[in-house]
């Protein structure tokens, strides 16, 4: 049969692309040489081309040094050096030092990872055909190898020993270390173990009276297991299995996936896709412990999905293991059982953590009352098998919902929290199934007799047929008209799994925040994005609640973007503690800073000394530098001004309102690179805003320079414009006028008179020169914020680069 020409072209293109990648790859890394993160094609390739090793993108601006299958779809990762500490996409590199140490450094030259080796001989780094990255000497003796420190994957011929373990990813697409481990325990037996932040437990093999019943043998302390090239796994504890496609040929990997299940995969090299060739028996996906956290409930269709009971909220959309939270405190109600009720969850169980009051052969009422009377009981399960088993629960963990679960879980809640006797029958949106439709006739109709009954049968049959046809019509309409919308929404929900773990980040309900702010009574600020209110959460935590205006995103995409912002942590950035997303209600919950914003102090009678202003300038620069260059997803602020610089009790500055550009996506240009529409505050906007150029980080630098001028002069930007540039029509005139005034009348004429009594001319000159550097019209001449930090620190330490000094003085 003749092969179509377009298929031959595709095959040629794919073969050419693969050959090009191999040609561009390096056979080894020698002493003194580096692999740089910017040079994406500069990678190490194994001699047969099976594996490649280089920088792999794990975030918008973050990378990890990794090993992957060259011909697999989307570069299937098998090892990472720095999975828990990604490096910047600029300036990072892997270097083999002359001392024989392989070192990974970030953009600032900070050590992130190393082999911690020393060798006086010539050494090289090579990637073997097995996928093993080795550091060896001239005699080919291995000094260090990646096989000794696996991540989540075991490759053929790679031993798993008592000193190593496989650790899952945190979630799908998030390469941080997760909580599932495959390793030898102290009894020399291989187990799958959930090792969470609070609890640790074995979930495979099932806990049984003796390991011998599973064919294991603990009497071998060698603790070693290996997967051979034919697909057979053999362990010192007698654990053995074969791949379903057993035999030499396919490329394979054994991986602990993010859902906690150990799977063996075989690569279909013509498509680059993986085929499942083995997984443990007796492991139900949703029986993996810790998967959905406290109160969380797992369903599996076909991927594990975590949901919360009605009225409960997911603690962290990016980390299922943090579970769900109820919007109430049971401990305050346990003394009065009349105020308690239960929420029914059919076909649901929370595995484990049964209380000592477990019983069988008792009535449902007795079981219910037993849980009511015990303050430590959070709920109970009651079996539907006729035995009358009662399972009171001290913790509601390891929740799962399946059609074959023969019990109902009852979760303790305050009376009135939901409608009396409420039963949660749906935890997720199921596909439309016309065959499952039921048509119910009311009891009044059922009492009709004779011809009426016969007539009703025909009528019911007609209506049933009509209803079925209508249901099919609706299904087809949904499929053709709304399937894109549904697919987009599912994709948006998937975005939430990509965010980095946000410590202490919480999803609030609108009712919670309405109560916390006393129905939004105390307004403490207002800006272009919305109004800020003071609030008090349970536990007397004072917060600032920003009620956003103009958000057009759906809840899922909003959750995803806010989760990313919540992961941004720096001492000079205001901490985002949580958010609310309920239809039109979009709110952000920030830490509350008593001293408020910089403008309220700077443009008032409050005395701010030079050192305090200098520290505010330095801290603000550090915060912006982190946003631009250091956090996993670089962020442009686009509205830097004193109103968005908050001060804590020690006058330490914290930049607020960062990340708004991610939430108000109307300002992002079509290319997704920077911004194209005007936003921000007049007087602080860079010249490029006015001429419709794409906006980058240098726009923030300009705004920062204006803030620095305000710090030095004690006057707001609008007053500066009128005082120094009465004929102001262009942005750069402000710079020209300030520079001219300093040249003719001296620096003292521009500086805030309140600083005269401590007139540190050298420091003031340096601050002014940095400010004027930042507000130049040509954005390429403005320094990056990291350079601003460096210049300010040089000023603080009395060190000034001569070339930079000449550049400033010549202005």
UniProtKB/TrEMBL annotation:
GO terms for molecular function: ATP binding; protein serine kinase activity; protein serine/threonine kinase activity. It is found in: Membrane. ATP binds at residue 546. The chain crosses the membrane at residues 458-481, 493-511. Its EC number is 2.7.11.1. Residues 518-793 form the Protein kinase domain. Residues 1-19 form the signal peptide. Residues 282-318 form the EGF-like domain. It is a single-pass type I membrane protein. GO terms for biological process: recognition of pollen. The keyword Cell membrane does not apply. CDD domains: B_lectin (cd00028), PAN_AP_plant (cd01098), STKc_IRAK (cd14066). It holds the Pfam family Pkinase. The keyword Signal applies. SUPFAM superfamilies: alpha-D-mannose-specific plant lectins (SSF51110), Protein kinase-like (PK-like) (SSF56112). InterPro entries: Bulb-type_lectin_dom, Bulb-type_lectin_dom_sf, EGF, Kinase-like_dom_sf, Prot_kinase_dom, Protein_kinase_ATP_BS, S_locus_glycoprot_dom, Ser/Thr_kinase_AS. It comes from the Eukaryota. Keywords: ATP-binding, Disulfide bond, EGF-like domain, Glycoprotein, Kinase, Membrane, Nucleotide-binding, Receptor, Serine/threonine-protein kinase, Signal, Transferase, Transmembrane, Transmembrane helix. It catalyses: L-threonyl-[protein] + ATP = O-phospho-L-threonyl-[protein] + ADP + H(+); L-seryl-[protein] + ATP = O-phospho-L-seryl-[protein] + ADP + H(+). Belongs to the protein kinase superfamily. Ser/Thr protein kinase family. This is Receptor-like serine/threonine-protein kinase. It comes from Rosa chinensis (China rose).
């Amino acid at each position: 049969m003749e092969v179509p020409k377009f298929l031959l072209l595709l095959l040629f293109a794919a073969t050419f692309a693969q050959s090009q990648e191999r040609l561009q790859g390096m056979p080894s890394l020698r002493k003194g040489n580096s692999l740089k993160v910017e040079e994406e094609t500069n990678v190490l390739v194994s001699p047969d081309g099976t594996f490649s090793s280089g920088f792999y993108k794990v975030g918008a601006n973050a990378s990890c040094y990794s090993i992957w299958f060259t011909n697999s779809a989307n570069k299937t990762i098998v090892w990472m050096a720095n999975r828990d500490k990604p490096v910047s996409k600029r300036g990072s590199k892997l270097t083999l030092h002359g001392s024989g140490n392989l070192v990974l450094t970030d953009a600032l030259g900070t050590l992130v990872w190393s082999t911690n080796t020393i060798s006086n001989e010539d050494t090289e780094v090579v990637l073997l055909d097995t996928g093993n990255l080795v550091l060896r000497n001239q005699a080919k003796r291995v000094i260090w190898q990646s096989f000794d420190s696996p991540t989540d994957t075991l490759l053929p011929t790679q031993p798993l020993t008592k000193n190593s373990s496989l650790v899952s990813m945190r979630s799908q697409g998030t390469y941080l270390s997760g909580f599932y481990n495959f390793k030898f325990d102290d009894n020399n037996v291989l187990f799958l173990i959930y090792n969470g932040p609070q609890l640790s437990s074995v979930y495979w093999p099932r806990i049984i009276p003796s390991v011998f019943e599973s064919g294991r043998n603990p009497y071998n302390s060698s603790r070693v297991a290996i997967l051979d090239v034919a697909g057979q796994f053999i362990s010192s504890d007698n654990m053995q299995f074969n791949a379903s496609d057993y035999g030499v040929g396919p490329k394979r990997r054994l991986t602990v996936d993010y859902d906690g299940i150990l799977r063996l995969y075989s690569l279909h090299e013509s498509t680059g896709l993986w085929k499942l060739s083995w997984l443990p028996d007796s492991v139900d996906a949703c029986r993996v412990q810790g998967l959905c956290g406290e109160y969380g409930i797992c369903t599996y269709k076909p991927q594990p999905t975590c949901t919360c009971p009605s009225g409960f909220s997911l603690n962290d959309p990016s980390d299922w293991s943090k579970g769900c939270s109820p919007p109430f405190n049971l401990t305050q109600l346990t003394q009065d059982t009349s105020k308690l009720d239960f929420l029914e969850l059919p076909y649901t169980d929370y595995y484990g953590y049964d209380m000592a009051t477990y019983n069988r052969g008792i009535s449902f009422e007795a079981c219910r009352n037993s849980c009511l009377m015990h303050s430590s009981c959070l709920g109970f399960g009651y079996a539907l098998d006729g035995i009358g088993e009662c399972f009171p629960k001290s913790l509601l963990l390891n929740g799962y919902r399946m059609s074959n679960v023969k019990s109902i879980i009852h979760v303790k809640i305050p009376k009135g929290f939901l409608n009396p006797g409420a039963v949660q029958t749906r935890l997720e949106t199921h596909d439309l199934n016309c065959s499952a439709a039921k048509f119910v006739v009311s009891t009044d109709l059922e009492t009709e007799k004779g011809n009426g009954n016969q007539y009703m049968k025909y009528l019911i049959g007609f209506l049933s047929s009509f209803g079925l046809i209508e249901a099919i019509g609706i299904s087809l309409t949904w499929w053709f008209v709304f399937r894109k919308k549904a697919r987009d929404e599912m994709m948006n929900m998937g975005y939430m799994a990509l965010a980095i773990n946000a410590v202490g980040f919480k999803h609030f309900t609108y009712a919670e925040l309405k109560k916390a702010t006393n129905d939004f009574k105390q307004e403490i600020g207002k800006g272009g994005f919305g109004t800020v209110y003071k609030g008090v959460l349970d536990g007397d935590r004072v917060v600032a609640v920003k009620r956003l205006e103009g958000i057009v995103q759906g809840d899922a995409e909003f959750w995803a973007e806010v989760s990313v912002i919540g992961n941004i942590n720096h001492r000079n950035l205001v901490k985002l503690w949580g958010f609310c997303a309920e239809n039109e209600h979009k709110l952000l919950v920030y830490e509350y800073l008593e001293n408020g914003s910089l403008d309220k102090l700077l443009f008032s009678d409050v005395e701010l000394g030079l050192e305090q202003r200098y520290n505010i300038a330095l801290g603000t620069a550090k915060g912006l530098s982190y946003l631009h260059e250091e956090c996993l997803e670089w962020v442009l602020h686009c509205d830097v001004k004193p109103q968005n610089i908050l001060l804590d009790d020690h006058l330490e500055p914290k930049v607020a309102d960062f990340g708004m550009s991610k939430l108000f996506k109307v300002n992002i240009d079509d290319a997704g690179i920077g911004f194209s529409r005007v936003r921000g505050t007049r007087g602080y906007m860079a010249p490029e805003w006015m001429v419709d150029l794409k906006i980058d980080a240098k726009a923030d630098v300009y705004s920062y320079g204006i803030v620095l001028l305000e710090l030095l002069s004690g006057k707001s930007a609008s007053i500066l414009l009128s005082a120094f540039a009465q004929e102001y029509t262009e942005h750069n005139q402000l710079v020209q006028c300030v520079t001219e005034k300093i040249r003719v009348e001296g620096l003292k004429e521009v500086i805030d008179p309140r600083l005269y009594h401590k007139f540190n001319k050298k420091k003031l000159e340096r601050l002014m020169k940095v400010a004027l550097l930042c507000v130049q019209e040509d954005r390429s001449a403005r320094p990056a914020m990291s350079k601003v930090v460096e210049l300010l620190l040089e000023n603080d330490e009395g060190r000034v680069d001569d070339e930079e000094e000449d550049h400033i003085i010549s202005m």
